[in-house]
Each structure stands twice: as C-alpha cells, then as structure tokens.
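protien #1 (seq + structre)
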Amino acid sequence: MSKIFTSLGLMSGTSMDGVDVSVIKSDGGNNFEIILNEYHEFDQNLQQKLIKLRDEIFTYKDVEDKFKKISEIERNFTLFNSKLINSLIEKKSLVIDLIGFHGQTILHLPDEKISKQIGDANLLSQLTKIKVVNKFRQNDLDHGGQGAPLTPIFHFLISGILNSKYNLDFPIAIMNIGGITNLTQVKSYDSENKDLYAYDIAPGSCLIDEWVRKNSKKKFDLNGDLAFRGKIDELILNQVIDNFEIKEIKKSLDIKNFDISFARGLSLEDGCSTITKYTAYLISEGIKKINKMNEIDISNLCLCGGGRKNKTLIKFIKEYLFEKKLILRNIDDYGFEGDFIESQAFAYLAIRSFLGLPISYPNTTRVSLPVTGGEIKKNY
C-alpha cells in the first residue's frame, strides 16, 4: 500500500488579498481526502507592498536591481505564512509531512524561462520544522514548457471523482477563474494522461480588480454588483474587441499581458461593466478555440476560483456561449470548495514532487515530456 502524506498547500494569487490554506491527505495518486480549508487575509501594509512591487517588475533586470526591496518583502511574506501555519497546526493538532509553498508571483516570462515567485522556502522550513516544496514552475520552463497552468493534474483527479461520485460524463472541463482564467479538459480518465489538456485562455478577475482598486477604495467587485449597476459602453467594447486578440492559446498568460487603458474616462460602474463584458468575451472565445482545436465538445463545465462568484461575469459568459449546450456549474455543487482548489492543488503537487512524479505534461504546459516539479527544502 502506498504511503499517505498529510500535505499543506498555500496559494496567494494575483489578487494579492491573502493566502488560501488547505490540508489534504493523499498518496499523490487517486487516494485523496480534504482535511481543512482556510483563508487568511494579508494586512493592508503587506498587500500594498506586494501590489506595488509587482507593478514595478517587468524584466529580470528589475528583479536584480530591486534585490534588497524584494528580499525585505519576501521575508515579511514568509513570516506571515509561517505564523499562520504554526497557529493552524497548534489549534487543530495537525501533523504535517509537507508544505506546498507556491509563493507570490511577481514576474512570469516563459519565453525567457523565467518565473519569479517570492517566498523563502528555507526560512519557512526552519520556522515550521517541516519539509517545504517550492519553485514548482522552473523545471517545466527548463524543459520547454510555459510553467503554467500547473493545476491540471489535480483537476484530472477531481474529474475522476466527479465522474464516479456524481455521474458526470466525460469529457469534463474545469475552469479556474482567478486573476487569469485557465481551463482543463479531461477527455477520458486515461492513466497516462494522454487525454488531459490545459490552457491559460484569458484574463479572469485581474482587469476588473485593477479597475476597482484604481477607481475606488474597494479591492474587487463583490458578486459583480458594480458591473451589474453600470452601463456597457458598446463603442469602447467593440473597439477593444476589434483591436485585441489572444492569438497564441498555447502560451501561458500573465496579468501584464493586458491593460485597462481603453476604459479611461468611464465612471466606476460603467468601466466595471464594460471591462467585465470584455473579460467574458475573451473567456468565451478561449473556450470555443480550444474545443475546436482538440475536437472536444464539452458539455460539463465546472467553475472554480474567485471569479465564479462574479454573477455578472458568469451571466455575460453564458450569453456569449448561449448556442453551446454547456452546463456551467460551480464546483461547490459537487462537494468541493471552489475558493480552495488551487491551494489543494499545491498540497497535492508537493506530494507528487516529493515522490518524483510528473506534475506537468506536453498537453498542459507544452513541456517536451512529462516532468516533475518542485524543489524540496529541509532546514531544521
């Protein structure tokens, strides 16, 4: 019988609002159990420093030039994570084998084989007395991959559960609407993962979040209420749709691939509505493109990530896909917490990395062959 690990996954996404924490038990294969999920918000000072830092970093030279500043923020970020882990372990009397520490992305340049996530795994291991797995993306990049998306192998596991427990028919798609939208298609539950496809397809909440942050004191558009109250500027929307296209669906995306300058001059609500409709258009076009490319007609599409809660965004996506016989449902309807799929995924990827199992595949990141990922740090 294969060893069951208790693994803790940490995920802080592009919204930079806090850390999702999940504890799972798994053998890195099909054996899987969720122990707990929790969200911990950053203090305002740390969040503002993280956002400001990301907005200043565009090249690896920027990383080198701002080494001292990055190191200071990285230490504060790591201390934040260590305190919440130690508090959780004490409060819940947990025994943790591994920590999957994704870190906070500040730069992603796959064509240059660069992906920089801040987070000091050595310090985290020292402070928690637990083995830490980090740098999940680099081995994929070094073997010709895009370094993203990395959650598909975990989505593959979930698809098996959706099929066996809830009788969902293959092909099954799982779409994560985070800062960027990525979509996994599982054609069949093939043990060699030949029928597993994944892509970054469009922005997710990143443009909407940026607009709201820059034009109000809010951090995001709760439930899509601002967009619902606003009026879409059809002229601006049609112009931006005509002038911008995601040409290469096989490339990973970064929030710096997009900007919101086209909405300049609009009111908070009207800008939010127009940007939300534009985001929905790009997501729906991405779905259509990859369905056509892989000759897959998805009927079951499960939504996860914070963007699934934006009712206006989901309404617009459904309108753009109205002719498709798609069943769009939140993954929460099937017993999963949609906010924590990525933190669970990195707990799972930590186990697979520790065991030397592949975490990315040619059809998920365009890597040359299936490769394992994270680096293991033990510092106690």
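ok now protien #2
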Amino acid sequence: MPNVVKRHVLVIAYYFPPMGLSGVQRIAKLVKYLPENGWRITVLTPDTASYFAFDDGLLEELTANPDISIVRTSSLDPTRFGKSNKQKTVSFPEERSRRFLSSLSQWTLLPDNKIGWKRFAMKAARQIFKQDPFDLVYATAPPYTCLMIGAAIARREQLPLIVDYRDDWVDNPRHTYPTYWHRKLTARMEHKVLEECVHVFSINETIMRAIQLRNPQATCSYSVVPQGYDPADFDHIQDQNPQAGDPSVMTFLYAGMFYDAQQPDTFLTAVRVLHERRPELKRRIKLKFVGLFPESKKILIQQLSLENNTELMGYLDHSDATKQLAKADVAWMIIGHQTGEEMISTGKLFEYMGSQKPILALVPNGEAKRALEGYDAATLVDPDDVEAISVAIEELYDRWQSHSLPMASAEHVKQFDRKVQASIIASEFASKIS
C-alpha cells in the first residue's frame, strides 16, 4: 500500500506541555490524535520556562510520534523572560493578588499579557514555512494573542485560518476593562482576526452565539466542539479496585484549581453543617483535593475544624490525577455566581464524566448544567445554597452506604471522547484546504 502524504497544520498554542493544568489538555489531546486523521503537526509554543505546574507525562505522549514537531521560542511577558530549557515552578498568586495583577496588565497589555510572544512566534513561523510549508493555521485561545498571531501568519502566507475559543474573548467573565475604549479596542482586535478566519470552533453554544452577535459581518463558519476526555487516560479504571483505601470512608474529590468565583467555601461550610447535624459522619467522609490549593482556604479548613477530614494532595500530573479520580466515590465541582456564569463549562467537568463517577455539581443555570443533562449520575445544587449542598452530600453518603450511588450513562459520555472530537476537527481542516 503506498504511503499517504499527510497534510501539514501549524498549531499555535501558548499553553502546551510540559506546562500542566487544565489549559493544556484540549490542545495536547487534539495534537495527539490528529495524526490518526491524516495530519502532520508543527506546534509553535513558548519555551518551557517558569509556570505554575509542569506535566512531563503529557509531553511524552506526543514526542514519540514522528508526525508531531514542537518548535519553542523565546517570549517576553510578566512570567517568563528570554529562552530557557529549565522548568521553574512559581507559586500561583492568591485570588486578591491575581485579580490586581490581571487588572494592572489590562491597562497596557492588549489583548493580554502574552503579547510579548508575538514577534518571536512570527519569526519562527516564517522559518517553519520556508523549511516545511504548512497548509493551514490553527490557533487556540486563551491567550488571545495566539489568535492575533494566527491571523497575521495566515494573512502573510495566504493560508486558511481556523481558531478555537476555549473561553470567550471580548465578553469573558474573567476580564475587566479599565475603560470603554479598552473594550472597544479588544472588540476591534477580534474583528480583525475573524476577517482572516475561515472557521471558528468554540467549547459551547453560548460562547459561539456571543462571537456571532459581536461579529455579524464575519463570513467564517462556526461549530461547537465541547471540552472532552481522553479514553486512554481511563483505561486503568477497569482494573481499579473499587474498594481501594478504607472501605468505611466515603471520598469526595475535587481536581483542579480555585480562582475567581470558583471557590470551596460553600462546599466546606456545607460539610461542617452536615457534621453538626450528624456528628457520626465526621469519621465517615473524606475530602480530597488534587491541584494547587490557596493558602487562605487552608485557614478556612482549620476554622471549620475539617483538618481530619481533608487531604490536600497538591498538584499531580494528569495520569496520577485520573488515578485519584478513579479511587474517589464522588467528584465535585463548582461554578460560582458571577457575570457571564452561563457560558462557563470547565474542563474538569468533562474529565469527571469520562471517569463515569457520580458528580456533585454546584453550578448555576448555563452550559455546565446543560452538559450534564442525560449523564444520569449528577446531583445539581445552586453553588450558594449551603443547606442544600449539605443535604445533597448527606443523600449521596446514604446512597453510598447502601451501595446505590447513581450510574452514569456511557452513551452520554461518548460524545466527549477526544478521539472522536479530533476526527471532527480534522474533517473541518480538510474541508478548508483548496
């Protein structure tokens, strides 16, 4: 059988392994599975300097494939300077400091504080194109600097551009604009990107509609590919001993970070309320946290006298995090009330569904709640209702004790399979190549 010549796509991604945390998952898994769908990939990304967490295991999934090349460049932004092959882990700022630094950067750095990468990326892309021409440009955001880089490269090389919104840009609920003019300039930046774009992917319908409403003149096509999970990450679950650990203790697990309105306060308070109502459960419920945990919330745990119930496991690479998820009895998540809450659908939710664990979802009306429709193993509670959360935890405990926790719908979960999603995206790529 003759060898099939694969098309070549340039992928522009600021957050990419060995950087860790949730921002790298979507693009890393897409890159992993695109070669199975007839594509060679060159990833353009900054060097592996300082970041909040690293996951070398995710990188190892990619480097062994000859159809995947990774080009790293220098960058200038507030967290990394110059070029370095050394990984330096830095502390994630407390929420008050994070908000202050974000607000400060939005006065002068548009579209975001990664704009200092643009000139390095543009230069590297020119060299890549000279040595190994690519057929298409694909950029994922945030940061939105990636979309501007993608548009500039596509325009220069006269190639189709496809972009991916993991969060909204102009109306992102985590953005604040110092002035009306800052927002207007940002909207103009988005408009110029979409002038170059042939297709837009977004993670949900709400974000997609917001982009379309802001840019009615755009001629690009649109489609939704939600967040997802890699089935290969959960192969070990079939062999996982469901009674691993202490069978007399029920485990609630949270995997990920806390920031903005996503905070553990109401969940922790609800556990304390449950302890007051049923003191015997103090020894029967375990709270595990996988990921970076704020120092201020450690104080809250002490104030609520939950030290003996809580295990802070710190950041774990993705493989170990999914193993902990497999051992848990219930996975829980929160999307707090805030402006734009309806468009938030966090990546952890889809990893949770991939594990087919019961999920306690403290979420408002919106995309996260809609994603759980049909899952069959979700308990939905308003994120601010401490009493209702306490009752939900109690009911889940009673069902656990009677071996009757809800079962997830495997059919519902299949739609979030990263392999399936990669084939959809690859088909869209192929349709845009003339």
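The chain has two domains: 7-228+417-431, 231-414.
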